[in-house]
Design goal:
The chain has 83 residues and is mainly β. It has strands spanning 9-14, 20-26, 31-39, 45-52, 60-66, 72-78. The chain is built from no helices and six strands.
């Protein structure tokens, strides 16, 4: 069974008055990075990143869907994690 692990990304969102609405960190102890965040029309956020476990020298693509409150809706890896 695969275990879902979030990547290290610090997200924070503010309103027009620069007040922080929410912030979250999504991380695991290996080599991870966030590359892009896209806001969807329904207020959710699609986060693209890369991940490399200590057992694998290749990077994998990580895609997260975050709801308007900063909670993970789903988390997907594209590649071979933990070879």
């Amino acid at each position: 069974m695969k275990k879902l692990l979030p990547i290290f990304i610090l997200l924070f969102f503010s309103n027009l008055s620069a007040q922080v609405i929410w912030n979250n960190t999504y991380s695991k102890p290996d080599s991870d990075s966030g590359n892009a965040v896209f806001e969807k029309a329904n207020g959710e956020y699609l986060v693209l990143g890369s991940s490399r476990s200590r057992f694998n020298t290749d990077y994998d693509i990580n895609v997260l869907l975050i709801d308007a409150n900063g909670d993970i809706v789903w988390d997907r890896y594209i590649g071979e994690i933990g070879r």
